[in-house]
UniProtKB/TrEMBL annotation:
One term of GO molecular function: metal ion binding
Residues engaged in binding diphosphate: 10
Binding of Mg(2+), residues: 103
Catalytic activity, as annotated: beta-D-fructose 6-phosphate + diphosphate = beta-D-fructose 1,6-bisphosphate + phosphate + H(+)
Function comment: Catalyzes the phosphorylation of D-fructose 6-phosphate, the first committing step of glycolysis. Uses inorganic phosphate (PPi) as phosphoryl donor instead of ATP like common ATP-dependent phosphofructokinases (ATP-PFKs), which renders the reaction reversible, and can thus function both in glycolysis and gluconeogenesis. Consistently, PPi-PFK can replace the enzymes of both the forward (ATP-PFK) and reverse (fructose-bisphosphatase (FBPase)) reactions.
Domain Phosphofructokinase residues, every copy: 2-297
Top EC class of this enzyme: transferase
Tagged with keyword Magnesium: yes
Family as reported in the entry's similarity comment: Belongs to the phosphofructokinase type A (PFKA) family. Mixed-substrate PFK group III subfamily.
Major subcellular site: cytoplasm
SUPFAM superfamilies listed in its UniProt record: Phosphofructokinase
Site residues by UniProt (Important for catalytic activity): 125
This protein's name: Pyrophosphate--fructose 6-phosphate 1-phosphotransferase
Lineage: Bacteria, Bacillati, Actinomycetota, Actinomycetes, Kitasatosporales
């Protein structure tokens, strides 16, 4: 049997570990051969493939990014997109497709499988950890580690100058990276998209921290918004994928803190640093296990299925379960962490 593999959406540390797990087990245990589709859904759309065999996956376990390339191409937005994919799979004798991606990539896989009979298996990925149906996604642990290290470093420079340091982390819709790295890094305020924040309250925390002779660190997720809605986004336009550009909350907040407290403030936007470089040991472990289980789904003919982590077990769920709604930070958890604010 020939199996196609693709990685779609934003890249994420651990993608190569999944690919390696799939190919190693598929070749060695089941005698399958593979084709790698380039750049997410663009690959099957254009029939653009690369060699994917044991030598191709040698040495990629600790490498960030994806050897297959990625894109946010959506075949449903292309003329004859689905027909072209079906035609290319047939021409290239690909009998199953393993799709590694986030909400958008998996949304396409679910529809292709359920509505058009294309045999897809899903593997969830995102540094944001906001996919339902799985306890964790790989990439998240690495991103939290990078953000935590940054916060640790910012503490010492903040203390030396007795300044406020605002750290903007990724998380357009959810505050998982913010809450995990903020707690691990000992932040004095953590602001998440799930709950609009009160700037006066943030300033009160900042002031109380200075009163105790410490310099405050404020962690803010890129999608967090103030309660009074008076935030001026640097750029409120839509990007080419229809996402509202949210860059700017960190900068805006630092200025507001300076204006309202009279204390000097600086902003660090961590951005794509959180997505780059070598995956953590946990992410390699999770990604590899996802890969091994995904190829088992193919062997079982279990299509329309996604692998997911439940506790310490890898389970199978319908792909659509991951995309129906985002997994947001529970406000009880947010309240629990709030004991450290100020
Ligand atoms: O979904 C992952 C993510 O890294 C988000 O946290 C972030 O908002 C977005 O992707 C950035 O996307 P791009 O790489 O297209 O700018």
């Amino acid at each position: 049997m020939r199996v196609g593999v693709l990685t779609g959406g934003g890249d994420c540390p651990g993608l190569n570990a999944v690919i390696r797990g799939i190919v190693r087990k598929g070749v060695q245990e089941y005698g399958y051969d593979f084709v790698g589709y380039r750049d997410g859904w663009r690959g099957p759309l254009d029939g653009d493939v690369m060699r994917l065999d044991i030598p191709a996956v040698r040495g990629i376990l600790p490498r960030g990014g994806t050897i297959l390339g990625s894109s946010r191409t959506n075949p449903f937005q292309h003329d004859q997109g689905i027909a072209r994919i079906k035609e290319n799979l047939a021409k290239q004798e690909v009998e199953a497709l393993i799709t590694i991606g986030g909400e958008d990539t998996l949304g396409v896989a679910a529809r292709l499988s359920d509505e058009y009979g294309v045999p897809c298996v899903g593997v969830p990925k995102t540094i944001d950890n906001d996919l339902s149906a799985t306890d964790y996604t790989f990439g998240f642990d690495t991103a939290v580690g990078i953000a935590t290290e940054a916060i640790d470093r910012l503490h010492t420079t903040a203390e030396s100058h007795m300044r406020v340091l605002v750290v903007e982390v990724m998380g357009r819709h959810t505050g998982w990276i913010a809450i995990h790295s903020g707690l691990a890094g000992g932040a004095n305020a953590i602001l998440i998209p799930e709950q609009r924040f009160d700037v006066d309250q943030v300033c009160a925390w900042v002031t109380s921290r200075f009163k105790a002779s410490y310099a405050p660190i404020v962690v803010v997720a890129e999608g967090a918004m103030p309660k009074d809605g008076d935030m001026v986004l640097k750029d409120g336009s839509l990007d080419s994928f229809g996402h509202v550009r949210l860059s700017g909350v960190g900068e805006w907040l630092a200025k507001e803190i300076e204006r309202r407290t009279g204390k000097e403030a600086r902003t660090t936007v961590l951005g794509h640093v959180q997505r780059g470089g070598t995956p953590s040991a946990f992410d390699r472990w999770l990604a590899t296990r996802f890969g091994l289980h995904a190829i088992d789904c193919v062997r079982d003919g279990d299509f329309g299925t996604m692998v997911a982590l439940r506790g310490t077990d890898i389970v199978r769920v319908p792909i659509a379960d991951a995309t129906v709604r985002l997994k947001t930070v529970d406000l009880t958890l947010y309240e629990e962490v709030g004991v450290f604010f100020g």
